[in-house]
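Shipment paperwork, digital attachment
Item: protein structure file
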Amino acid sequence: MKSFLVYIRFVLNLNTINITIQEDNPSFQIRPLESRDISFITKWSRNEGFAPGAGDVSIYRHTDNQGLWVGCLDTRPIGCIAGVRYNSNYGFIGLFLVIKPYRGLGYGVRLWKHALNHLSDLPCIGLEAAPERISDYETWGFRASSLTTRWKLCSENALSRPSTSLHIFKDFINLQLLEDSQIPESAVYSYDAKREPSPRPHFISDWLHHPAGKVLALVDSNRKCHGFGRIRPCLLKNGKGWRIGPLIADSNELARFLIDQLIYRHPGNILIDSPGLNTNSYEFFQSYGFEKISETLRMYRGFSPSTSMSDVYGLACLELG
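Attachment content:
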């Protein structure tokens, strides 16, 4: 994303190929994402290996309906980006891609500037950087925070149902395993807000109520949450799978209990993205049997959030943090 020349000449097989890079090309327009765009953006995300979850893009749109855009060349969509504003202090950039035939022509830079301008008044902006893009984001003022690791677990056959007994967790009063509509939303909102860079009740509400997958929470007799997680179907580059996220819990033992309950009836490839700021997560997922398949770098521009993420085992998604 460094500055581009206005005109570049390539020579290939003795033939001259002229490529004009026009950051002000009037044929390229950026417009808000519409419902009709969701299917092809999901397809693009799948082809890029993002493993989009069922309904994810719709949730992103509802989180900030002015924070998702599509870049069009002569009305044809060729790229997209999200610059979601959670509140007056925090925003996140993701879902940033331009389809291959149109890369290197300045269209990505225009999308990037559009999203960054939308969030320019915020004291903190986050993103997840692929390793090859880190230096680009540094030129725009972003600084490294921690590694995020994507893990995969392969379970070919349905697992036997794990025990649902919670008596072994003696530090909690009458701990209950609740699912879907049984879960008290206010307890989850409060629990999540203390463990994420910014409160996000609208985002979490959509996450809890989406019909795809399963949501579980551990709640005590005082209606205090001690952990929750969601599993949802996702689209892999080749085939289908499952993604877990968010996954937040007071301890390794509670996190393991939630994973056991989430995956036993979902055979196949299961993905989860864990933040490096939870220093226990690496050993935790290795001991469970997960395999590391990729890493990204969480970066921030402005101040870095001071919220502890030691209880966060799985991010909701990489696209919105």
